Every structure is written in C-alpha cells, then in structure tokens.
Amino acid sequence: MGDIFQVMQGMEIPADSLLIKSDGVTCDESSLTGETKELEKKVINHENYHLNLDCTLIGKTFVKKGSGLAMAVCVGPRSRSGMI
What we know:
By secondary structure, the protein is mainly β. The chain has a single domain (about 5-75), classed as Calcium-transporting ATPase, cytoplasmic transduction domain A (Distorted Sandwich), CATH 2.70.150. Helix content is about 5%, strand content about 40%. It is built from one helix and five strands, in the order ββαβββ. It has one helix at about 30-35, and strands at about 5-10, 15-30, 40, 55, 60-75. Strands 1, 2, 3, 4 and 5 form a five-stranded antiparallel beta sheet that branches. The chain is globular and about 30 Å long. The two termini are about 20 Å apart.
C-alpha cells in the first residue's frame, strides 16, 4: 500500500486507490456496481477525501478514458472487490 502507479486507458485497476493526478480519467465499475455508465473520477484533495467515491478507483475495474497517477490504499480481502 502507498505505491504510486500510472493509470492508462484500458487498464485494470490493480488495487483500491486514490486518484492523485488526472487527465480526464473515467472508469467502468459495472463489474462490481452494476452501473453501466462511465464514471468521471476526480483528483483527491483536502476538500473531497472523505465525502464521496469520486476520487476512488476500485480494484478489478477498468479505466475507460484518460490517464493519470493513483496511490494504492487497499488490496486483498479488505478491498471493495475482496469484500464481495
């Protein structure tokens, strides 16, 4: 945890992560949430880190558009996909 990795269009997110830099990142979370539309992700900052999931990338989901950097925060059975 705490590893920083590059986010690119088409990649599978390897771990639950926080988006720290974004150039138009959208994600397909339908494999976990059932939501079929792409979700625009926002860079985490001191105002939004505790309010919603807009800055969270969920492991085992896919980047549909854009690129950026993310920091891994949770893997394995404690991750969102691991709890299912």
